[in-house]
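I am sending you the entry underneath: sequence plus fold tokens. Let me know what the token row says about the fold:
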Amino acid sequence: MHRMMPVGPLMIEHRLIERMIGVMRKEAERIGAGGVPDPDFVDSAVDFIRDYADGCHHGKEEDILFRELAKKVLSPEDDRMMQELIAEHATGRDVTRRMVEANEKYRAGDNSAIAVLVECMNTLGGFYPRHIEKEDRHFFQRAMRYFSTQERDAMLDEELEFDRALFHARYETIVQNAEVRVSGSAAGEHADDRNSHARDSFAAKKAG
């Protein structure tokens, strides 16, 4: 039976990221027109970008697809584009960090942070569509030419396992945080960042 290529799930995830980015752009436009920022919305947007767009989506790209491509002899153009994509992921993380800091300042009463919030949302709103187009239309299909059918299938299986590990790590962290909140228990003291925890668990399982 013909299986989906490993870039298939990544392209499906792009569609959900595009939807969230569209909402963020509208929110930035509303605030820019004089609307009051909604810090809860910013928290939700940051959670999506960090956990889904970066932890889940970029995690599979960097830890699986790009890792395997690094073992191949890429054309100069393909290697250059892969390095660009990795650098763009880092840029997205930096903008997201700035958005978190601005939201914290706004919650504390610093209205000068509003401009930074709008800037960050507009930056991500411009960044992600271009990044996604580069991957969907230019890089992904070319990348698949470097792999055999067996290698593609193995990467797809890794992606499915990566998602399972991330899902379980997310809810383990939620429970640990709830324990700390309700009882002051030390149960959550060893809780890692959910994305790092998922990647570490996955890496350990692969190493075993």
